[in-house]
């Protein structure tokens, strides 16, 4: 019998080479989910079995390649035209405010993150969030007019990413129900983070890391 080289955990290219050198042909099965986050590109063998004397089936899945890239710090004026963003707001003391159609909401002190997106004019949108003075139109306006928005993390715009980010974010805290989710099926697009860490965005799994981070030019107002 032909001996079959062990390829478990090995990169796909290398595994195919090993099997090729042993005179074996390969049947591939890729079990990477169709919606795997960007960055999951490193295909590795997770299972192997011999189908017959000459053929080996390799089951491969994608893994994250190396450490995630760091978001690039940019000025608001350098913001891309479109994007999905997370807006970080720090509330120093308890605040009860009327949030339009949602009525009065009591916000406990803490760190809040709001998820939104802009298909165009991202700079104006994020600028609006970071400005205290504004007409109150969206749910987030009621909060961001009272609480300092400290940073915005930006991802390239893509269909469905906004709600995916809102779902991932919610795993790290408690959702403010209904907030910012009038146009989708999410429970909410605002989350009060559990535990204070300025590196909270690193805990987001299953989504690509943000491309940019924009710090608020405004002074504290809460
Ligand atoms: Zn949503």
Question: What does it look like?
Answer:
This protein has 222 residues and is an alpha+beta fold. It has two domains: 12-64, no CATH class; 72-215, no CATH class. The chain has helices at residues 12-21, 122-130, 139-144, 161-170; strands spanning 25-30, 40-50, 55-64, 72-74, 83-91, 95-98, 104-107, 110-118, 148-155, 173-175, 190-193, 212-215. It has a seven-stranded mixed β-sheet with strand order 4-12-9-5-8-11-10. Strands 1-3-2 form a three-stranded mixed β-sheet. Strands 6-7 form a two-stranded antiparallel sheet. The longest helix has 10 residues, at 12-21. It is elongated. It starts with 11 loop residues before the first helix and ends in a 7-residue tail after the last strand.
Brief summary:
This protein has 222 residues and is of the alpha+beta class. It is built from four helices and twelve strands. The N and C termini lie far apart (75 Å).
Q: Which key terms come to mind for this protein?
A:
about 220 residues, alpha+beta, 2 domains, 7-stranded mixed sheet, 3-stranded mixed sheet, binds zinc ion
